[in-house]
Design goal:
Layout lengths: L8 H32 L26 E4 L4 H6 L1 E16 L4 E12 L1 H10 L3 H4 E3 L9 E4 L5 E2 L5 E12 L12 E10 L5 E2 L2 E7 L7 E4 L5 E14 L11 E13 L1 H21 L8 H23 L10 H29 L5 H32 L1
Parallel strand pairs: 2-10, 2-11
Antiparallel strand pairs: 1-12, 2-3, 3-7, 4-8, 5-7, 6-7, 8-13, 9-10, 12-13
Helix pairs in contact: 1-7, 5-6, 5-7, 6-7, 7-8
Length: 393
């Protein structure tokens, strides 16, 4: 029985069509499930007004972020509170670990307080380090805070002063890696009043940055691959979700010292994006190989897939787990999709070319070349679309 062109078209397209459909389902499952979870996520509101009740007991609520507000949002605390001034100078910042979300800082901080606080500390047999501490310090055994002189000094205006040298490992609670390896990085040092001593003789103890402090950061506070943008001191109030056994709403005064860095573009591009771009470029050039070279064409996307896996494992080992995809993750995802799609296309085209009769091979090759060109254009458009969306998200 003679072979009729097109009679086996369904059979030839069934397997690659099935694979392509399964691949599309797998690629679409993650964003689809994320949207469903977002829509179904219950919303909890907490109403906090002047230290009174809340819409839902904190013990019944799910994990939520800390309630941190600017000190300016509490004018009654500013009127009633006793002010302790804070100054910070970071001599050096080093050993940043994105995977562990930690970094080291060597420097000094100093405190200035009125005589009212000094009388209270003497009565309670406390020193300043028992009243103020680092909120985001990670390891006590690997950190030290040493007073520059053994006892506080009283100044002519009646205020008291003491400075401290510190070398500590600090925790970075939030790192935004959506644009990694580009974007910004914010490293905090948080000084706070110890919760048990947040109220002195019925008045709240407030930490306030020293006015017009200069030189928050030293000459050795640079990080490799990042440029320092700014360093700021900001007074905030944190409302805790526990009363620490004090039988009252605990609001703690804090001073946040924030070091703002921005990643350097070209080092990140050369180290992370350029190798990925070269691999994708080689993959997209491979359709120009003759359709008769089926084995060679099939080897290119499989080799590229293995290379992409090792590259991604190399850079992701130094990053923490995140509930979102970074800029680089999205580029790798589209690169995987292109390699798998091209492998399916080459497998199908090689099979079709080998089954074609000798007098039809030239026409089949022309048709396959046309499909290859369309795949290249679609792939380039997909890369541009994903890169644009990832940069804006």
């Amino acid at each position: 029985m003679p072979h009729l062109p097109g009679t086996d078209r369904f059979g030839r397209w069934f397997v690659p069509g099935l694979l392509a459909g399964l691949l599309a389902l797998v690629m679409a499952w993650a964003p689809f499930s994320s949207m469903v979870n977002l829509v179904c996520m219950p919303l909890h509101r907490m109403e906090i007004q002047g230290g009174e009740g809340m819409g839902m007991p904190w013990a019944m609520q799910r994990a939520q972020g800390p309630i941190i507000q600017p000190l300016a949002a509490f004018p009654h605390l500013q009127r009633q509170g006793i002010v302790m001034k804070v100054g910070v100078h970071a001599d050096s910042i080093y050993e940043l670990s994105l995977a562990q979300k930690t970094y080291f800082v060597d420097g000094r901080f100093w405190l200035e307080w009125p005589n009212t606080v000094q009388v209270w500390m003497q009565r309670e047999h406390l020193d300043p380090l028992a009243v103020v501490d680092f909120m985001n310090q990670v390891e006590d055994w690997n950190s030290e805070v040493v007073p520059d002189f053994s006892q506080p000094e009283q100044r002519p205006d009646g205020t008291w002063y003491q400075s401290f040298r510190f070398s500590s490992l600090f925790d970075v609670r939030k790192i935004d890696l959506r644009k990694y390896p580009f974007g910004s990085l914010q490293l905090p040092i948080v000084l706070q009043v110890v919760p048990a001593h947040s109220v002195i003789d019925g008045r709240p103890l407030l930490l306030v940055p020293e006015r017009n402090q200069r030189g928050i950061i030293g000459e050795d506070a640079s990080l490799d691959g990042y440029s320092l943008i700014s360093a700021t001191l900001a007074p905030v109030v944190r409302t805790y979700r526990t009363d620490y056994g004090l039988n009252r709403l605990v609001r703690i005064s804090q001073v946040q010292c924030l070091f703002n860095y921005r990643s350097s573009f070209w080092p990140g591009f050369i180290k992370y994006v350029l190798p990925l771009a070269i691999i994708v470029l080689v993959v997209l050039i491979s359709p120009y190989l003759d359709s008769s070279l089926g084995d060679v064409r099939l080897a290119i996307p499989t080799t590229a897939l293995l290379t992409l896996v090792f590259l991604q494992q190399g850079y992701s080992a130094g990053l923490p787990q995140t509930p979102y995809l970074s800029y680089l993750d999205k580029l790798y995802a589209v690169a995987y999709l292109i390699c798998i799609g091209l492998f399916i296309l080459f497998a199908w085209s090689s099979n079709r070319y080998s089954l074609a009769s000798d007098d039809q091979k030239a026409a089949v090759q022309v048709g396959l070349d046309r499909i290859d060109q369309r795949f290249q254009l679609v792939s380039l458009g997909l890369i541009a679309l994903v890169a644009f969306e990832a940069w804006l998200s």
